[in-house]
Structure formats: structure tokens, C-alpha cells
Amino acid sequence: METTDTLLEAARSWRDDDPDPATAAELAAIISRAEAGDDAASADLADRFSGLLQFGTAGLRGALGAGPNRMNRAVVIRAAAGLAAYLTRHVPAPLTPRVVVGFDARHNSDTFAADTCAVLAGAGIEAMVLPRPLPTPVLAFAVRHLGADAGVMVTASHNPPQDNGYKVYLGGRLTGPEGNGVQIVPPADVDIAAAIAAVRAVRDVVRAEDGWVTLGEDVVETYLERASRVVAADTPRTLSIVLTPLHGVGGDTVARALTKAGFEAPYVVPEQAAPDPDFPTVAFPNPEEPGAIDLALAAAAERGADLVIANDPDADRCAVAVLDPHGAGEKTPGWRMLRGDELGALLGSHLISRGLPATNGTAEGEAAGPPVVACSIVSSQLLGRIAERAGVAHTETLTGFKWIARVPGLVFGYEEALGYCVAPELVRDKDGITAALLVAELAATLKASGSSLIEALDALAVRHGVHATDQLALRFEDLSLIDAAMTRVRATPPVSLAGQPVVSVEDLAVGTGQEGGLPPTDGLRLRTGGGIRVVIRPSGTEPKLKCYLEAVVPVSYGVVGLPGARSVATKRLGAVRSDLLSALGL
Q: What is the pLDDT of residues 247-276, one digit of tens each?
């Protein structure tokens, strides 16, 4: 690739404006190699200057490094300046905008948080920063609790160690009740992005040397006290738990939440207990990734534990593993991690059976309304079946908690990627801490009655049918290949899946059309007449094309009992995977 003069000029300009000597030097070295004719350096430079990081499913997120298409101090300062300009325009004078900032323990998270506070204070905005690296749910709680107009969380959640990110939440004075403390959606994200793009140079952004407030531990204590109320006062607490925070910031907070709620202190996997931005014991710091919770499973087997709880590094997700008599784990016999859809069905069913509140569970003083449970379009249809049978309203949203959390009347929401909102009046986002408390309550209650989470899942399958889910995730270095695959499958969608005729093909890019339907998103949804559903979409957080598969098989329909229904569903999912790979041309 030949590096153009325009690209080199842009790179030199960015280098000279970079406030961080480390990334300025990094960029200078790449420029020098590109000027000398190094094709790899030229390609690297072109990627770094392919555009400014934009708000995706989970805010800004990208690899650390120099340039506008990376996470660095220059990008963060511009983002903070754009947010400050947006708040100044939208919070009516003479009111002063108020922002709370949180950060995790990833590389540069504390620096990015400090830069954000400096920019906000320099713009005359009241800025508050959490006292130390803390989970994302604590920040989301603080936005509502402190009456902030916005919140910023510096985190890349479950991404690899070389990444970092920047989530923005809006508060009650800038949004309706359902959006208070929720991540930004259009048009706010577009407006903030435009304000960021309008920042001509970092050197022009005023950064105060002080003037922001470092919050005390009382905000954490208040969150823990409120979170402990998720568990009913009269339910059992006898349970042995193994906990892993996967080198993230959730270990102490989750352990304290469990003990505050009356459970025995969990055994925290020592090799993964302390925050470590390099995540040395895992390939990817995501509980869903193979091998990520092997240490926790081994500890559970050795200790005879009842339950394994794993959080991702910023503790907004919650994974659970159990001893399953139906099968054997690869490394730890009998233990397996529940799928996100399985845990979502269990938690939703548990909350419905406990009795849902008469009001919508949002801000104090809101009008009462019917309780609603929600999940994303890529999540299982089982929650909808459970809700329908119980006479509870259910709705589907686009992928991401910025959509789920906005559902009016929300009392429970989840998405299959291990995200659960079990207390929207507390945190209107996914919260792996309160989810851990609720699943511990359910597991302890079932244990006291001689049952288990696996038996509860079996009962749901018998009642509503086996809802087997799987995911085909394809990682790409060249993002254009994702667009090409989506173009192919749109042009020629499969006419059958697992031998069943496809009866419905919805292009989600044009929305679902009906009143109250979904807004447009890049994706395709296919259904057969025999209970198979597939959603194909590019990931909003990683360079992946994702296919979400579901096969629904009634237990009493042409099979012998529950094992037979599960076997049929598993075979259908395998056939669907093969059919999709062919349709995608991969």
C-alpha cells in the first residue's frame, strides 16, 4: 500500500497534538517507517487513521495505541470535550451539569478517568470520580443515586488486555425516567459524536488541574446495602460458593455483597482474585471463553461447592456453573457453565414466581404500570413463553442493555451474553453483582427443598419445551469480510435449515415495521415452521460475525421424554450450523 501525502500529513498533525509522549513516540516511529517505504507500516497507519472511534453497542472500545482509531489520551480528551459540549448545550442554564466518572483496573483506565475529569472541570462542569477501580454497576448506580446528568465508565469489559473503552450514560435531567442511568442511544450518541468531531485539536481543550471531587466509600456502601435487598428476607442462605472475578475489579464487591445478604463468604479463586490488567491466567477475560473458569471449576470440585459464580473484569456480567448429572465436563467431570439463556430463564422464572411489583420499578414518584420482562432479539424465546403462561408482559429489544434498560415498566431484563438486570430501580443496566445475589438465593432455595438449578431447568423444559440455543461466532481480521458475508446471505438466504423450509426472512436493517417494532439494525432473522430461529448480525463489540441459533422441541412431540427432545434439538442445531456456513460462503 502506498501511503498518501494526505495520510502522512494527518498522522504528523495528530502526533504533534498528542498529549501523551508514549503514544506520540509510537506514532512517530510508524510514520518514519512508512516514509521509508515500509508497506506494513503504511497499512498500519492507514488502519489507525481510518476514522475516529465511534460509539457502538457498548460505547467507544478499541485497542490501546496511537491514532484516532485507537484508545488513547488524545481520543479520550476529545470524547470528554464532546460530552462536555453536549451537556452544556442540553442542561438548561443556570443549572450546572453534573457528571460521575468510574474506571476499572485496565491499562490506562485511571489516566483516562483523570483526563475526563480535567476536561469536564475545565468546561465548568461538576465532576465526581469514584474512589478507586470499581465495577461498572457501581458507576451505573451512582449516576441515578447522585442525580448526575451523565456518567462515564472507563472499561473494555470482557475484551482482551490490549483494549480499553469508554461508556457514556445519561441522567434524569437529559432523558425520560426509563433512560435515567442508561447508556446512550440515538440521537444522543450521534449528537455527542458530532461534538467530538468538532474538536479541532487537543491543545485547544481546556483541562483543569483540579476542581473535581473524589467520592468516598459511602457510595459503594450504599450500593451494597441496596443490592443486598435483591434477596428476599425469608429465603434460605445455606450455600457453598466458589467465585472468580477473572482478574477484574468485581471480587471484593461481589464477595461483600454475598456476605451482606447473609450468605457464607465465597471461596475466591486466589490465582484470579486480584485485579491484573494483563489477565495472566486466561486467553480472553470472558467467562464464556473456553478455559476461562477452569480454575474455578477445579476449586469447586475439590471443595464440594454448590455453585460457581464468575464475573467478567468489570463485573457487569455474571456466569454460573453447576454440577450437572446429565453430562460430564471436559476437565472437571460433571461441572458445566450454564448458558446465558438458561440463567436468564431461571432468573426470570424465579422473579415471576416470587411476585412482581405492582409498579414499574423505575424512579421514585413515577406512575404505576404493568410489570414487563424483556430480552434482546438474539436471546432465547423461552422467557417469552414463561411470561405468557404467567400472564406477564414480555418484549424484545435490539441487542445491548442500552435498549433493554429503556423498556417501560421493566422489572427484569437479560441478554444471552451473560447480562442480567434484576433490579432496574437500582441499576438500569446489566449488573453481575445483583445477578449473583439472585442466583445464589435461587440455588439456596432449591437446595433446601432437595432440588437444584439443573432440575429447575428440566422443569421449565417439560413445561414450555426444550429451547436449545447455540452460537456460531466467526472472527475476522479484515472487517470487510463481515460486510461481504452479510451481503451474500441477504441476497441469497437459505431456503431451508436442518431440513425445514424457511418460512420467514426479516431484514432487520429496515426495522420490523409493526407498531412499536424494533428500529433498524444490521441483521437478518430467519424462522422455520418447525421451531428453528436464527439471527445473523455483526458483533457490536468485537470483529466477529455472530449467528444465534435456537431450536424449540416440545417434550411430548414425537420423542421419548426430555432426553429425546434434547437430542433432537441438539441434532437440529448441528445441522443449522452447517447450513449457515454454506449460506455465508465460509
A: 999 999 999 999 999 999 999 999 999 999
466-483 mean pLDDT = 90
- Predicted structure pTM score: 0.93
Same domain, 96 and 83: yes
Helices (H), 449-516: 453-464, 480-491
* 426 and 520 both lie in a single domain: no
Residue numbers of the domain that contains 502: 465-584
228 and 84 within one domain: no
The three cell numbers of residue 48 are: 489507525
Digit-coded pLDDT (tens) for 120-161: 999 999 999 999 999 999 999 999 999 999 999 999 999 999
Count of beta carbons in the 10 Å neighbourhood of residue 388? 12
| Helix (H), strand (E) at residue 567 | helix 561-584
Q: Known catalytic residues?
A: 157
- What are 512's three cell numbers? 420490523
Cα–Cα distances (Å) from 225 to 218, 260, 315, 460, in that order, read 10, 8, 17, 32
Q: What's the rounded Cα separation, in Å, for the pair 297 and 279?
A: 18
Based on the fold, state whether residues 438 and 308 are members of the same structural domain. Answer: yes
Residue whose C-alpha cell is 425516567: 177
